[in-house]
């Protein structure tokens, strides 16, 4: 599938769907020192060439904000307390607007994908964002079509930011077999 960058927005953070984590999984907040775990998880899903590249990015993006990560970054733990997934309820700006919430760096280790962990993780992150912001956005790409389907089900809508977006959303309508309102 052609990889086309996309942006989605949730116009408000009310009525967030909630899902519980299946047993024995649970969610916890970032703790100082978790940056290497974050890097390993993100590298495991192919976001970075390796954990050291991911750690370098973490330090560049979040290094001076680790105190904020303690309330905004979430990890999924398995029965042994091993972190196997993460996302960050961060913030950013769209088109020179004020800061709004941002779902950022969603990842679940490949061995744990398909175990109904993504919806509870996204719901928990949106709840965190609702405590800070009235709305939220995320960036993704057409190759993450399963995640996009979930984002649509959570109330995120397409945001047309480039001419190429129309092609991406048309492609996704075909792949997902659903009408996407632009």
Automatic annotation (TrEMBL):
InterPro entries: Acyl_CoA_acyltransferase (IPR016181), GNAT_dom (IPR000182). Residues 25-178 form the N-acetyltransferase domain. Coiled coil: none annotated. This is GNAT family N-acetyltransferase.
